[in-house]
Amino acid sequence: MQQLEMFPEDIRIERVDHDANMFRFYRLGLMSDLFGGVPLLREWGRIGTQGRHRIESFEDAGNAADAMIALYRAKQKRGYQLAG
Fold this sequence. Notes:
Blueprint: H1 2-6, E1 10-17, E2 22-30, E3 38-46, E4 52-58, H2 61-77, E5 81-82
Antiparallel strand pairs: 1-2, 1-5, 2-3, 3-4
């Protein structure tokens, strides 16, 4: 649970490259379910569209936050930056 205090529960990052006509977004969000698990919502696509999504379930908030941080860092290496 310590990670959740240091890291937000919802992140939106974008990768914009005008020369390559690339306008992408990626959103990561932690949710809670009725069974005590913590789903990680991943949404991605072109900015201005609904995009696609995937939900991964984790047993606790710590594991979900670890997965979210790992995905965020991987996207940062590919050129994504925090939106707004």
